[in-house]
Specification:
By secondary structure, the chain is an alpha/beta fold. The chain has 11 helices and 12 strands. The strands form 2 sheets. The chain has a 10-stranded mixed β-sheet, with helices on both faces. Bound molecules: nicotinamide-adenine-dinucleotide. The site of nicotinamide-adenine-dinucleotide has 23 residues, from loops.
Length: 353
Amino acid sequence: MKIVMIPGDGIGPETMSVCTNVLETISEKLHLDLELIPEIAGHDSLKKNGATVTEELLAKVKVSDGLILGPMATYDFKDETKGEINPSKFFRKKLDLYANIRPARTYPKVPTRMNPFNLVVVRENTEGFYADRNVESGNSEILVTPGVGISLRRITRECCLRIAKSAFELAMTRKKHVTLVHKHNVLKITDGIFLDCCAEVAKLYPEIRVDDFIVDAMMAHVVRNPENFDTIVTTNMFGDILSDLTAELSGSLGLGGSLNAGDRYAMGQAAHGSAPDIAGQDLANPFSMITSASMLLNWLGQKHQLPQYLQAAKLIDQVTEQAIEAQEVTKDIGGQFSTSETGKRFVQRLRAM
Ligand code: NAD
């Protein structure tokens, strides 16, 4: 299997280097025959190719089996006419990666004020409030007159049905509990469509318990009792915000793995950004990137029915648990190791399994 690996900006090269070592080790151990193809995007590509991402890169990704995208300095990329394209948006839209799966769980040795929890946010990835991806051409934010702006939110039955289906399918492998998050009291039409689609899909899964919360109240509920939730499904921006919160509640944003999946392609991508405040200091937590890689292997295993890929994902997750239990981790989750040392120890553990 060919996997394109793009380190990205800021802490990306540091965490991607660990991720690459982990994938090489698991490939050797379980005979996965992974071919890791290094590519560039973000600032490196802007300097070299005049654009943060290119059609040539997309073509390479399309003939590979998966992509792991490092964090991007998205805030720096403001003008698409100058090649400053948001790489996350580019791949999510061009590869139709509509489901952003963002798990968050606590570990006994990671300091947190929460009760133990294990949940997953299923976020729609291709429309909603995201002005850069919800229209065919141009941008859905309009400067009406100086000082007056309008931002449009697109919600479609097609996208709501497919994200609901992803969430209910996932819930069947978990605790069979789905929570719908919306703002139907204000966004009556668009979140009405979202809720109607979820209700339609729910009928196909009668054994799943369904409840729903208004997004603002959800913030309080998830901070108060995150253990009450299992699979949460929501629209794009609500899911983006909620999943950063749940990752941080689990101990650190640096633990937040994520997968962007469509019907044909998938992309592992850590939930966090390029973290310029700690970049280049060997401080970044590599577990979000490692978990994202494990999620991609699991997706490949399910899609192509390859038990050794499913086994690989399981082993990586087990080593993650062991490493955290042994506190062989970075400072953000109470450890004392650098990114590279955390990675080195992780690979040693993986080899010894
Ligand atoms: P951020 O996620 O980069 O950082 C937020 C906080 O979390 C910082 O204190 C950072 O040090 C910490 N953090 C993040 N990842 C960590 C890790 N692996 N280990 C330890 N601590 C970690 O958010 P930001 O600072 O607001 O954004 C920086 C840049 O990243 C901006 O350009 C933003 O647009 C971009 N961004 C990109 C993505 C993405 O590529 N998916 C996501 C979010 C933000």
